[in-house]
């Protein structure tokens, strides 16, 4: 009887602890986000195409505690007929820490923090009737806290969503412009802000491969 109770308790413990939140587990993650928008009327047409890619690695240094590194790349293109177009590229990365809290079987909540850096570059090209060229370079630094839900689907796969976040962001932007008369101007902007987001406007997903 005692043996049966012990086996039952172990089985319940395993089901509650999930599959792969144990010390020594590696987690490889990737994410892709792509969207296209198009608007047209009698005398105009605008197009917008946005793509972002994320590749990350995480390591459970102890049960339910993970550190991670994520690398990101983004490419956004906007055009307005033949009049003008804009292309923006961004590169970045972040270091993160997450602690997982068991909810039901393989479903976990998590909370953590991160430090991030993003470099962005944008170029604007106007039509030939007014050959103005402008662009900017931006460096952004951020620290923040965030949380969400993770479902450890199996021993090898997990799905994770980010529901809440709060960030402190510092941004420095340098804008260069050349007009039709080859007149060059340079502007610099800095900003500092604190923001928080919730489930409705900050829903994102990750897929983990565990090994």
From TrEMBL:
Q: Which InterPro entries match?
A: OMP/PagP_B-barrel
Q: Could you tell me the superkingdom of the organism this chain comes from?
A: Bacteria
Instruction: Please tell me whether the keyword Signal is annotated for this protein.
Output: yes
Q: Which residues form the signal peptide?
A: 1-20
UniProt keyword annotations, A-Z: Signal
Please report the name of this protein according to its UniProt entry: Outer membrane protein beta-barrel domain-containing protein
Organism, by scientific name, is: Pedobacter kyonggii
